[in-house]
TrEMBL record:
UniProt record similarity statement: Belongs to the glycosyl hydrolase 3 family.
Lineage top rank: taxon: Bacteria
All residue ranges annotated as the Fibronectin type III-like domain in the record: 713-782
Descriptive protein name: Beta-glucosidase
Signal peptide: 1-23
Keywords: Glycosidase, Hydrolase, Signal
Gene Ontology molecular functions: beta-glucosidase activity
SUPFAM superfamilies: (Trans)glycosidases (SSF51445), Beta-D-glucan exohydrolase, C-terminal domain (SSF52279)
Gene Ontology BP annotations: glucan catabolic process
One Pfam family per UniProt: Glyco_hydro_3_C
Amino acid sequence: MSSFKKSQVLLFLWLGAIFCAFGQDNKGTPLYKQSAAPTAQRVEDLLGRMTLEEKVGQLSTLLGWKMYEKEGEHVAVSKAFEEAVQQRHIGMLWATLRADPWTQKTLTTGLNPKQAAEATNAMQRYVMEHTRLGIPMMLAEECPHGHMAIGTTVFPTSIGQASTWNPDLIQEMAAAIALEARLQGGHIGYGPVLDLAREPRWSRVEETYGEDPYVNSQMGIAMVRGFQGEDIASGKNVISTLKHFTAYGVPEGGHNGTSVSVGQRELHESYLPPFKAAVEAGALSVMTAYNSIDGIPCTSNGYLLNHVLRDEWGFDGFVVSDLGSISGLKGSHHVAATSEEAASLAINAGVDSDLGGYGFDKYLLEAVKSGEVSQEVLDVAVKRVLKMKFDMGLFENPYVDPAKAAKQVRSRNHVALARKVSREGVVLLKNKDHVLPLSKSLKSIAVIGPNANNTYNQLGDYTAPQPDENVVTVLEGIQAKVSKDVQVNYIKGCAIRDTTQSQIAEAASLAAQSDVAVVVLGGSSARDFDTEYEETAAAKVNEAAEGELISDMESGEGFDRMTLDLLGDQLKLLEAVQKTGTPVVLVLIKGRPLNLNWAADNVPAILDAWYPGQEGGSAIADVLFGDYNPSGRLTISVPRSVGQLPVFYNYRNPKRHDYVEGSAEPLYAFGHGLSYADFEYAHLKIAASGNARSPEVAVHFEVKNISNVDGEEVVQLYVKDLASSTVRPLMALRGFEKVMVPAGESREIQFTLNEEDLQVMGQEKSWLVEPGNFQVLVGRSSGDIRLEGNFVLE
């Protein structure tokens, strides 16, 4: 062979090697399409093939409900979707299947589960077959208390979920929500919301797990494990997006999305631990918050997103902005002069995905071209998004089965699970003279109030339209519980806010003729089609025109409060019914703590059901008539007045003194909740071993049911650091367990405290366990401590 031919052969071999190195096998299949190849290699191969415009497009998460068209039973991609894919190279959608007044999708114009699966399949088919690289879409859906889509199961809102004090149950619920979303083509579930709710005037308390870092952590872990399961590519799990990073739940004055005043120590000791726990549980996505902390918006806070989240905690997922929060750096916070600068601030701080699609897009393109954003920073963000698509198996399995969606979404088992979660979350606040449980042999029951027979008022915000037959109201639950011989009479009595619809005299007359009056009051997060909305989807608070009925909505995103009073004529209604002398049971359906001072003084029995979801009426009836012994406990304190705020149990020393007008203590304390059973605590034993460098403290005690009724008790373990280098909380929850104790029997309870339970952020901002004296407090609530003991760490 001539030297020329040898050179040709060597050149051919060299070119072949280069060709293979760029991701082609001998059959011409790109490496990124080879399922057996490692994910990291597939990501690098695909990234190397993408244009700048395609990379930026992968970071855009557009509003999804505009991306399909429906004619009769047929669904297809819309022109808007085709244009977004071809012109903007989008990689993700949000709320594609969302239906509510904001999206203007109704039971008629929206999609049932089968149609939803067909629509998402059509979108995937289009991008797989009509784009250069065939990168599948990733669809994010709202999933805080059920997938926010037509035909799904509606569970209690998060504050009700937390009131169960049962993380195992919440994990089971989260798995059900994930399955329903995934069967319809969703891949990401927005939730859980891990904001501490220490400002009850704030409109979104219902979306939280309450005021305590430990409860929030345990519920967050449960949600992440339920959403993501063991294998994110299972076809029945979704990526969990933690919201809102961070300290969003304590805005000044209760104004949603405004600035927050917390110190760095408080931030690390109270507001970050729930997120850290969820990240350690494997959460794959985090959403930034609208607020600023110490003058820096969370969406441009590199310290939080890069240093804390990624460097310290080892987070390996992707960060998404909240809707419009990138453009908000310019338009709301005024820390950016131009939209290009806002995009630069966000991505350089660690934001990978733009929810809404108008924060990055052309502005990020310009920022990269001008050098404000480096190619390296852009590539890192794109890699994080692509990795999730490969890990979920979307390149191999982008489609779902519409028949499965039709059959398994809102299954009988899921409906039963919704009832169980709702039932366990009902909190018995008061039960004077054992008014409850009610007898099923009563001759007549008056069911009264604006929330007694209102489908939407018991569902909470972030809920899709519902056929009436999907929801059981309190009236319907009571009617189903008693025989036809019991006369159940209903009157609305008044609205939540509007005072032109009141029937107070008629309601009092009905109560006077009845054996018992069940009065169902509270609030509403139910949006209607007359509501106006901000660009971020938060509802606008507008004054009603003269002669126009006032909406019930007084809670839900955007509806912040100045007071916590029952609105409209609700208190007048309750007072009139109480004056009849008929025994009264007050049932509360609401999204935030309300002023219950008069009720606490005058009404013999009070149940708090929060927003109990579609099975709320059945669950409440189960508790009212004793078919379920209430086990719910408060995860947020109920104040006596807004003048006390903030009111939460684990505030920092020193202990607060009373006001001139009254007590500084809350009306109902964190952890409070009664049972039809009575429990006795005894035999506390504390054994500390190790030392401050490696502590282990075993806590043993006994709980005995001293009644003749089986009951679940929520035992709560609190710790007090008696002397430390920095000011510590008055007490801090460090363990809880819901345990069934049959009548007359006892249960041995054991907790083990470790380094994480006892550590403090010292003066130098480092975590350590300090030697010294600690106190253990065990009881039924933060205000009902039954056992106390001390231990010393050397």
